[in-house]
Amino acid sequence: MPTLSGPPSELKGKRVHLIGVCGTAMAALAALLQERGFQVTGSDAAAYPPMSDFLRNRGIKILEPYSAANLQPQPDIVVVGNAISRGNVELEEVLNKRIPMRSLPQMLHEDFLAGREKLVVAGTHGKTTTTSMLAWIFETARTEPSFLVGGIAENFGSSFALRDSKYFIIEGDEYDSAFFDKGPKFLHYFPDAVILTSVEFDHADIYKDLDAVKTAFKRLVNLVPQRGRIIAYDANTNVDECVAKAFCAVERYGFSEKAYWRIVDLKFTADKTHWRVLKNGEPWADFEYSLAGEYNVLNATAAAALAHAYGIRVQDIAKALSSFKSVKRRLEVKAQVNGITIIDDFAHHPTAISETLKALRTRYPKSRLWAVCEPRSNTLRRKVFEKELAESLAIADEAIITSIFKPEAIVENERLTTAAVVDLIKAQGRNARELRDADAIVETISAELRSGDVVAILSNGGFGNIYEKLPQRLESLTKANHPA
C-alpha cells in the first residue's frame, strides 16, 4: 500500500476550503486534509463546541460569517457541506468562478478510502458511538486503524485518525451528500463490511417516507461484496427487509433467542454495565464498561461481533470496551453543581431521546429527571413525530421544550406544534411546559433545581450555549446564597 504521509502528487500544496466546516463530519474531513498536508481553510455561519474547539486546537481558522472574501486567495478545491444550499454567498462565488468543488463523501472516496478495507457503521441510531467503539477495539488490538466518526471520540480526543493500516472505519451517514448530490453519503464508501444498527424514518427534509429510507439502506447492503459481512440488529422489521437480499454473510445481534450474537444477563449498577454474549447459542464473552443504557450494550455487541470477524481476540475486545470512554455529546456529563448533574446529549429523533432518557433512568434511578429539548433537527422540527416526541419526553419527570429552531424553514402545515407536545406530555401525567429559548430556560429552572436532580439537555446544535449558561447560573446562585 502506498504511504499516506502526504496528498496525491497532483494535489501537493493545494488549498482546500470547506464551506460549513463546523459540521461534525466536515470538521473531521478538514483535519484529515490538514494531516495529509493540504492547506486548509473553513467557514461557517456560527461555530460552537465541540467541533469549533476541535478545529481551533489544530490551527484551522474558522471564518465567520459566510463571505465571498473567505475565498481569497482562491482555493484549488472547495468542499461544499450538505447543509449549504443555493444562495449561500460563498457557494455562489464558487459557481460563478467555476472553482472545482466536491462533496464530503467524494473527497473521502477519492483521497482517503481507495485501497482500504472499509468498515462502515450505518443506521438511524447509534452510528457515532458504535463507530467509536469499533475504532477503539481495533486500536486496542494494535491494528492502528484509520477512522472518521461524526463526533469527538473521547478515547482518541479526536474525530479521526489517519494511519498506514489497511483498515478504515467510518460512520456511514444516510443523509444527503451536497446540494448537487442528494444521494446518501454512505453510497460513496463502497463498504467491505457493514454494521446496521437500526432503520427508521428520519431526515424528513430528504426522504419522502420510510420506504425511501429503506431503499437507501438496501442500496448500501447491495454494495457489500460476497466476501464481506453484515452485522445487523435482529429486532427491527425494517432491518430485516433491508438485509434480506444481501449477497454476503449476515449475522444478527440482539436480545432474542434467534440472535447469532445474543445478549444475556444484562445488569446495570451505579457506575457499570455488565452483560454476556452467546455466539450461536454458545458462551462467547463477558463484557463490562462504564456506559449506561440498553442501546449502548447493543452498540458494543455489534462492534464486538464485527471485530471478531476480523480476527481480533475476545480478550482485546473486552479490554477495549472496559476502557471505552464514550463520545462528546453522547450522555456527556457537562457539570455537577451542588448535587445537580447536567448532561448533554445529541438529540435528533424521538427514539434517540427515548433511549437516552431510559439510560439515565437506569444510571440515576432515584433522581428527579429533567428533559430540556430544543427541536432542531429537520425531523424534530416537523409534525410527523409530534406524538412520538411527547411520548419520549414523558419518560422524564419534568419536560421543557423550547421554540423550534428556524421555524420559517419548515412549511407551516408540516411544522411541529410545541404547544401540542406539551399538552400530550401532560396527558401522560408528567409536568411539561414551553419556554422561549435557552436564556428563559436557564432563568426559570435554575431556581427550581435541587440536589439530586439530573438535567438532560437534548439538542443537535448549540442551543444558545445552554450547556455553559446553566452551570454558570447555578454557580452564581450558590455564591449569592452562601457568600464567603
Structural notes for this entry:
Helices cover 31% and strands 25% of the residues. It contains 14 helices and 23 strands. It has helices at 24-35, 51-57, 89-97, 104-113, 127-140, 210-221, 237-243, 294-309, 314-322, 350-363, 386-393, 418-427, 438-445, 466-481; strands spanning 15-19, 39-43, 62-63, 77-80, 101-102, 117-122, 146-153, 158-161, 167-172, 176-178, 181-184, 193-196, 229-233, 249-254, 261-268, 273-279, 282-289, 332-337, 340-345, 369-373, 398-402, 431-435, 454-458. The strands form four sheets. The chain has a ten-stranded mixed beta sheet, with helices on both faces. It has a six-stranded mixed beta sheet with strand order 18-19-23-20-21-22, with helices on both faces. Helix 1 (24-35) packs parallel to helix 2 (51-57), helix 5 (127-140) crosses helix 8 (294-309) and helix 10 packs parallel to helix 11 (386-393). The longest helix has 16 residues, at 294-309. The N and C termini lie far apart (64 Å).
